[in-house]
Specification:
Number of strands: 9
Radius of gyration: 17 Å
Structural class: alpha/beta
Helix content: 40-55%
Strand content: 25-35%
CATH superfamily: Glutaredoxin
Strand order of the largest sheet: 5-4-3-8-9
Largest sheet: 5 strands, mixed
Oligomer: single chain
Number of helices: 6
CATH architecture: 3-Layer(aba) Sandwich
Shape: globular
CATH class: Alpha Beta
CATH topology: Glutaredoxin
Length: about 190
Amino acid sequence: MRRAVVIVIALVALLAGAVLLLYPRGAEATGRLAVGDPAPRFVTTGTLGGETFRVDLASEIAKGPVVLYFYPAAFTTGCTLEANAFAEAMPRFRAAGATVLGLSADDLGTLRKFSVSECRGKFAVAPASKRMIADYGVALKKAGVDTGVTTRTSYVVGSDGRIAFVHDDMDYHDHVRLTLAAVERLAATR
C-alpha cells in the first residue's frame, strides 16, 4: 500500500514537471488584442460532435456575442478540464445568446476527437491558423521563440465585432466563469 502511494506521488510530480516544460514561467504572448479592438475576421473549418463545418466569424457575430477561447493543446489536463467546464456551462451561454468556439494549433483530426469526448458535442472547436494566432496575439513564446502552441486566452466579441472582454491566464480555472459573466452583461444591455 505504501509503495503504491509513493508511485502515485512520483507520477503526479512527473506530470507536473511535464506541464512546466510545456508551459514554463516566463512564457508570453505579444500583440494581444484589447477591449475595444476590432476582432480580426476569419473563416476556418470547425468541428462539433465530430462533424465538420465552415466557421465564418462574421456570420457568428451576426447571431450574437462570440466567445473565442484559445487553449494550448487538446487532451492536456488543463485544456480537457477547461473544455469540460465550457460544455457544462453551455446552457447559460446559449441563454445569453452567445456562441462558443475553442481554438488551438491542433490539427482537425485531433479536434474531431476532442469535440466528441471533451467538449461533449456541446460547442465547436477549430484549428487556429498561424495567421489567426498572430492576429489575436496568442502565440505562446519562450525567450522570444514561438513554441507552436497558443496561450490560454479568452476573448468575448460583441455584436459590434469588437473585443468586449479579454482574459489571459494559463490557469484554466476562471475562463468559463469570466467569459460567461461578460456575455451575460452583454445580454443584459440588449
